[in-house]
Sequence to fold (256 residues):
Amino acid sequence: MARTRFSPQRSLILEYVKQSTDHPTAEEIYQALKDCFPGLSRGTVYRNLNLLSDDGIIFKLPLPVERFDGFTNPHPHLICSGCGSVHDLKIDYDSGLDQLASESCGYQIQRHESFFFGLCPGCAADQQ
Amino acid sequence: MARTRFSPQRSLILEYVKQSTDHPTAEEIYQALKDCFPGLSRGTVYRNLNLLSDDGIIFKLPLPVERFDGFTNPHPHLICSGCGSVHDLKIDYDSGLDQLASESCGYQIQRHESFFFGLCPGCAADQQ
DNA sequence: TATTAAATAGGAATGATTCTTATTTTAACA
DNA sequence: TGTTAAAATAAGAATCATTCCTATTTAATA
Fold:
């Protein structure tokens, strides 16, 4: 699965996603890297993010604006309804759920993805 | 919360979403209704879908392409990785999950949304 | 009936993402 | 080591979903 060639651009993008914890968008990654890698193009960022997630090396969250996660082991995400920020949620999530779902619907379940929506402390304070 | 005025267009759009079971996109709703309501515009479809989901009368799924659900009570969704179709999943889902998540992260959790990804029987057959 | 807020049609604008093309890089191997 | 061919790139055009704008229409109510 893994690519045979790893260009400097691809390595940089992968490294950035792996070390980030805020589930950046493609645009955010492009903005963060374009100065330390002059000439880097948006197309390259998008293409490599897709290749890397196709290969299972990073994870693409199925949200209206795509966000990327360096952790590929399944875990739920927490989305602030106020500011849209995304965080990992550290609760133990029933790993038998896919099996249960599979039995209920007859699909071959590959994975599941859960999003909890709520107000982060900052946005909750703003609403007072 | 509910709108005071209900135009024929809005009623039609609501009725369509309520009676459909395939979680249509805005475009699909527009295509389905434009012939029986000549002059209907995409703008009207999008605007009303947003108003209706703001009011909690329908539900907007947080997916890269937005899809709408006439059932507003929480339930997980099943997405085919092959054809992209969306179905409701009828498993009993722990209603204490929001509470658990809330305690773990300090957010005020409003709701959660779970997506199971897998191959529907048709797409699974195609892969043989 | 006149007023006015809400809603509409139609299309322009926006924003995210993908695609195209000409060029450059690099791995493999003669 | 030089050649070749596949893979990757930059730049920007194209696409697609969605929102916004404007002039017009509708409908509740005073």
